[in-house]
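FW: tagging you since you asked about this chain on Friday. Here's the raw sequence from the shared folder, copied in full. Didn't touch anything.
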Amino acid sequence: MLVLLMRYSRTSTSPDQPIYIASTAVFMAELIKIITCLFMLHHQEKSYKKCIHLIYSEIVQKPYEVGKMLIPSGLYALQNNLLYIALSNLEAATFQVTYQLKILSTAAFSISLLGRSLNREKWLALVLLMVGVTLVQTESVTTVETLDNGQKPMIGLLAVLTSCISSGFAGCYFEKILKTSTTSMWIRNIQLGICGATFSFLGMMLSDFGQIKSHGIFTGYNALTWFVVTNQALGGLLVAMVVKYADNILKGFATSISIILSGIISFCLLDFQPSWLFLTGTAIVIAATFLYGAAS
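HL: got it, structure written out here
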């Protein structure tokens, strides 16, 4: 759903209205993430004084710990910008199919970075998951009309492939940090957000300074833009929670099942009529989930 909203927010404006600058959306998402983490840290500690002490002791006094977050934050910032580039240059269906390669890249980095071992049954389950969610996602976008507004498919394809690789590496690297440290998850996300906001700001200034100077940082923003930005920020925090208490591979299964549940809810409450693609993809995802669980 977020992918479709991101694409729609970039392509639905009328010719006489400006499109918002993608790099500013990435930067705003990082700021929202930091603010949300500060609220959650206060909720956890029940005291402003304790929050300030934690922030000072874990961030100001430990620059090395903050430095650890430069790699995932830089990759996440790159990934978010690449997603906007890909969605601006690819049809939604093409993007959805190609983006599922992140499932396999995550598995590969789980082995190389986290030392996990995956047997043949688990690899088969992951391939089936990729095929199943591709069918389900393709069903959700086949009826969406897209117009060629100067799209460059090769650039879009390179962007989405790079995003898949960076997503897998950054996710597994962040998981390793979360699970090998006693530092609060909210502090870690604030550290990640500070680094991410820095990278995003630099990228925004380097690539779009002229546009921002001429039209302002919020040019083209509307309610849908803010919804997409907020959704992206909060979604990133939810992912961190899943990675902390489960792992990146299980996150992939959870995401796939949530897509199916969204389709079922749309069928019950809206006028969505699932086709054989959706039903086949659903069956494959369920089979993959059971196969992975049985192989564990």
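FW: Residues 141 and 209 are 34 Å apart (CA to CA).
HL: agreed, and Residues 2-10+18-91+147-245 form one domain.
FW: great, closing this out.
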